[in-house]
């Protein structure tokens, strides 16, 4: 299988992310790291690991983030793929738990797991997030209705999800025009190819940073999330009901409030750490 890490200005957390991938109990994978012409030490850090499973590629010029994600997928060679953002983490048994079901059942298109939300020191802010009501085997209709009702992304970010390379290209891959719901949009389209399996285990960690892409674009994320549930509701084969959409419209603002709370928690933790460091100095 292929694990891929697209990275731009990722020097602060990249080494920890790479170690979390290399420490997997499942060992048979390639790790593709695509340096998006970073002006920092990201490329040097990626090349500092003496593990033959790692392949580091570098873009000639910096691509927009969606295009960089599309490019790293093109570089992957294995039938199963997981994309891990350059500041997120994997549990040591993540690949073990996710690869097994995919290899055993070709009818599964997506395997997802819960994730912790962590701060800049990798401390858990919110544990075991996601997949409420979505564990076990689910159809595309069940998943789409649940997504619309939630008004958010109950499946989660790429680090917690495994999918098939052939399916990714069959459905057209990441869509740049859905930048801030690009992951959720892909999960739904992949379910045109097979079933969804939600695992109850917590197998990844998503970092909430003060200067993360999510923190800087919170208002845009909110607008795209609202538009996306309307798009799903208007897709005939997903069979979203009017009651699902009505509930989702009410819950979208709640998702925005949860994101804002996470950003505030991360910022408070960072300020507290800075004060403690000043006292220690």
Fill in the keyword field for this structure.
281 residues, Spore Coat Polysaccharide Biosynthesis Protein SpsA, Chain A, 2 domains, 43% helix, Nucleotide-diphossugar_trans
Give the helices and strands, then pairings.
Elements: E1 2-7, H1 14-22, E2 30-35, H2 42-47, E3 54-58, H3 65-75, E4 80-83, E5 89-90, H4 94-104, E6 108-118, E7 124-129, E8 136-138, H5 140-150, E9 161-164, H6 165-170, H7 182-190, E10 195-207, H8 213-216, H9 218-233, H10 242-280
Parallel strand pairs: 1-2, 1-4, 2-3, 6-10
Antiparallel strand pairs: 4-9, 5-10, 6-7, 6-9, 8-10
Helix pairs in contact: 5-9, 5-10, 9-10
Domain Glycosyltransferase 2-like: 2-136
Enzyme class: transferase
Protein name: Glycosyltransferase
Structure explained in plain terms:
The protein is globular, with a radius of gyration of 18 Å. Strands 1, 2, 3, 4, 5, 6, 7, 8, 9 and 10 form a ten-stranded mixed β-sheet that branches. It has 281 residues and is an alpha/beta fold. It has helices at 14-22, 42-47, 65-75, 94-104, 140-150, 165-170, 182-190, 213-216, 218-233, 242-280; strands at 2-7, 30-35, 54-58, 80-83, 89-90, 108-118, 124-129, 136-138, 161-164, 195-207. The mean pLDDT is 94. The protein has two domains: 1-87, Alpha-Beta Complex (Spore Coat Polysaccharide Biosynthesis Protein SpsA, Chain A); 88-281, Spore Coat Polysaccharide Biosynthesis Protein SpsA, Chain A, CATH 3.90.550.
């Amino acid at each position: 299988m292929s694990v891929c890490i697209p990275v731009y200005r990722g020097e602060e957390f990249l080494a920890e992310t790479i170690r979390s991938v290399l420490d997997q109990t499942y060992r048979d994978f390639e790790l593709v790291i695509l340096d998006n012409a970073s002006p920092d030490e990201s490329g040097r850090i990626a090349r500092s690991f003496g593990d033959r499973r790692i392949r580091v590629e570098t873009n000639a010029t910096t691509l927009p983030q969606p295009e960089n994600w599309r490019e790293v997928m093109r570089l992957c060679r294995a039938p199963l793929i997981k994309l891990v953002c350059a500041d997120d983490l994997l549990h040591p048994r993540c690949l073990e738990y996710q690869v097994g079901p995919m290899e055993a059942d070709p009818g599964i298109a997506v395997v997802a797991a819960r994730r912790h939300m962590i701060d800049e020191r990798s401390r858990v802010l919110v544990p075991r997030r996601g997949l409420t009501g979505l564990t076990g085997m689910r159809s595309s209709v069940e998943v789409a209705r649940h997504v619309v009702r939630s008004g958010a992304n109950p499946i989660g970010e790429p680090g917690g999800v495994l999918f098939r390379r052939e399916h990714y290209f069959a459905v057209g891959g990441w869509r740049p025009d859905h930048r801030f719901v690009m992951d959720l949009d892909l999960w739904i389209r992949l379910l045109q190819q097979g079933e969804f399996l939600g695992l109850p285990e917590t197998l990844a960690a998503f970092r909430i940073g003060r200067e993360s892409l999510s923190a800087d674009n919170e208002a845009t994320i909110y607008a795209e999330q609202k538009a996306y549930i309307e798009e799903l509701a208007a897709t005939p084969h997903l069979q979203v009901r009017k009651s699902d959409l009505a509930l989702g419209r009410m819950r979208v603002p709640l998702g925005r409030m949860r994101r804002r709370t996470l950003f505030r928690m991360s910022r408070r933790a960072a300020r507290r750490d800075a004060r403690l460091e000043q006292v220690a100095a």
